[in-house]
Amino acid sequence: MSKKYKAAFITLGCRVNQYETRAVKEAFESLGFETGDFSEKCDVYVINTCTVTAESDRKSMQMIRRARNTGGKEAVVIAMGCMVQINPEKSAKIEEIDLAVGNKDKISCAQKAMEILKSKKREKTVEVSDISGKREIDSAKITGSDLTKAFLKICDGCNNSCAYCIIPKARGSVCSKTVAEVKSEVETLCENGYKEVVLTGIETAAYGKDINSDLVTLVENVNECGKLERIRLGSLEPTIINEKSVMRLSECKKFMPHYHLSLQSGCDAVLNAMRRKYNTKMFLDVVRILRENIGDVTLTTDIIVGFPGETEEMFLETQEFVKKCGFLYVHIFPYSDRAGTLSSKMNNKIDAQTKRKRAQRLKKTMLEMRKEVLSNFLGTEREVLVEKTEGKYAFGHTDNFIETRFENTGKKVKKNDMVKVKLTDFPESAEYVNAEVVKV
């Protein structure tokens, strides 16, 4: 009887990375591997790296070293993904790694790990394919998820050239799965009990540009999947939103009334320096279109504070613009230099203390705004998909992405149940809304 090998996985970075780690994990399982915890001794450790910031590189290296320290010299340590793709030469010099694989070759890790274990040969291998130019998307597919909702990669790559971002170099240009491929994957997930999918990509809004399709058409087709109950989208460029696209999406009954719109700054001068493709007037028009056409819609976004050249006045413009938009939540990031980007070569860098203070100030503004948004929904009844249960409470998100907490005395509800609740109040932190169960 052959030995049963054990592999552990850890993911740094975005939702696409999480999807790809799951796909790689399923490839390992298909070869008979058991899945272990990253903190325990295993035969193989797979680190799906991120390189969006210098800090991401540091954390990726930290996980690589941790894997070697935990697994010892006998373990096979594999680094894959963006950090390797951007810098294969540097990856080749990392002594803890046995195999380094770029973004195009992740699925091959399972077979290669098995070959290394069986041969017992430890020659460092670096495999990074060229991802420049037109290409087809990789063959990654999943049949399940480590979360209640399933994140499904519909496209890879990015056609933007934002001043602060290295990812187009790590991911190449946009390449998409066909509508039929996505729909088939969703149907498999539904057969395996998943009720909610999040369609995502590196540049989700650019889906289909390489295959004569588009994101709205994809959503309309996924909406036809019989057992599916909820569709969400990953982060969107606001340029995809117009009256026609919103009307078509609003007719998809399974499409949830929540949009994550990538803003990055509420100051036109900063947006221009960032090389974003819109201004605040265009963004505000998108907000208007969504609110006029979709009842109870909520909006979330991302903001970078302290971009090179951002003055106090520019920051205040962002602060006021955020208030005007009325976001449910804002992910706030102090600007971080990334070597190889245009912004890393810019003058007028903002010091760390100023960036930190601006982030704190914007967070305070966001919390005040969040409370106003949440207050508008108190007393209403909404469907919640239960994502976890802890002690006497259950947690989940409403259709419009409000995180709720409600008592689960007697364990009447369980993970993956759809429950109707009435929103009642929220704590000072506003991290969730308390609710009462109306119908299980």
Structure description:
The chain is an alpha/beta fold and 440 residues long. The chain folds into four domains: 6-127, Rossmann fold; 135-255, Transcription Regulator spoIIAA (2-Layer Sandwich), CATH 3.30.750; 257-375, Transcription Regulator spoIIAA (2-Layer Sandwich), CATH 3.30.750; 381-439, OB fold (Dihydrolipoamide Acetyltransferase, E2P). The protein has helices at residues 15-30, 54-71, 82-86, 88-92, 109-119, 167-171, 179-191, 215-222, 243-250, 268-274, 280-293, 312-325, 352-375, and strands spanning 6-11, 34-35, 44-49, 76-81, 99-101, 125-127, 150-156, 175-176, 196-201, 230-233, 258-264, 298-305, 329-334, 381-390, 393-398, 403-407, 418-425, 433-439. Helix 7 (179-191) runs parallel beside helix 8.
Distance between the termini: 48 Å
Going by helix content, strand content and strand pairing, the class is: alpha/beta
Number of helices: 13
- Quote the beta fraction: 15-25%
Write down the Rg: 22 Å
* Count of folded domains: 4
Unreliable stretches, pLDDT < 50, 5 or more residues?
Answer: none
The CATH homologous superfamily name of the largest domain equals Methylthiotransferase, N-terminal domain
Q: Outline the biggest β-sheet.
A: 6 strands, parallel
What characteristic shape results from the CA principal axes?
globular
Mean pLDDT: 95
| Strand line-up across the major sheet | 2-1-3-4-5-6
**CATH fold name of the largest domain:** Rossmann fold
Using the 3D structure, state the CATH architecture of the largest domain. Answer: 3-Layer(aba) Sandwich
| Percent in helix | 25-40%
Let me know the number of strands.
Answer: 18
CATH class of the largest domain, please? Alpha Beta
